[in-house]
Specification:
By secondary structure, the chain is mainly α. The chain is built from 15 helices and no strands.
Amino acid sequence: MNTAFFFRISIFWLGLSYMWGALNIQFLPYHIPQIVPVHLQGTAIGLIVFVGLLTAIAVQPIAGAISDRATFKVGRRRPFMVVGIFLSIPLVIVVGISDSLSLLLITVIFLQIAANVAQGPYQGIIPDLVNPSARGRASGFFGMANLAGTMIGAGIAGLFIASNQPVWATVSIALVLLMTTLFSWFAVSEPVPIRDQRDNFESIRQEVLIRISQLRKHEAFMWMVFSRLMFFMGLQAMDNFLRLFIADGLGESDPEIKTTVVLAAVIVMALIVSAPAGYLADRYGRLLLVAASCICGVVGALLLLLSQSFSQVVFAAGVVGVGLGGFTVSDWAIGIDLLPDRKAPGLYMGITNLGQAGGDALATLSAGIVLDLFNHLEPGLGYRAIFTMMAIFFVTSCVLLGVVRNKMT
């Protein structure tokens, strides 16, 4: 397995992260203030993201579980990836032209369903195709594709919005999704699935009982999911309110462009760290690297709390990025190592998304409410409250790693 192989299997992730980076970081914080009153902006953003991600949490493991049992001649995963994305593309366009909060909310819910029909099965690619000794490096490429897609998506969407062409931001998403999906269909080959009697499906009730029993026997896996949840709560508490903070908290002009700069500081540092982190994860173990990443997150959150200028925010964001790069690679590899059932990677990697999507949902909703409440007490105070929450979430993630280590022994 070489670099070209890792690149090929990661491209699909770039398309998915381009979409969510463009929508969650740039388009929704721009579009929602156009259709809701100013005193409800934070709560509205939080509600949209929260409900959408709850949908993702429900759909993704189900889609992954169905793909685990699929017997298509072209492979288990790619048919779901193609169908999910081709359903997503028209929904992205509807998001771009939504003129009411209710229409936007309904469309985002359906978009999450479609996108996670693709993402749930896709997350089984590494366990399916990559040898255990190379999963840290493969996870590093997944992490880099995720981060690069987020940065590029937010950057291009920000440029369109800054030039007063927000609909073109969503058109760009549709084009990127189409290109990355076609590339993945032709560039990634899967073996023909082999089904045996152990794959027979008896009933939903029996399946649920089997999975609950497996999770009880693999407590380290669930504690890893909780630790992941706390880390991404810390990260997303910042990400989805960056534009509002730069515009209102710092009073900066051109908030779309400067949001992209701050995000670039996070993601460039994460990209720099990702490749060596994947190598170190394979060679020296993962838990220590994840703990160090959590500490970087705490330091970055405290620096944001104390920041008084745009340049200080960029520096603090870079520190958070170092933590993100190490965490993304190592934590993903830990999740694969701890899979309760090697025959159901789509299902269980979907469950790990309870950490990322659940963290995003809970953090965005809670941070949005905190933002509105504290800003009502004193303008700008809500952003300081959010950065304090970030630090607490990162500390909690680090503490939970100790439980994971104990359960692994």
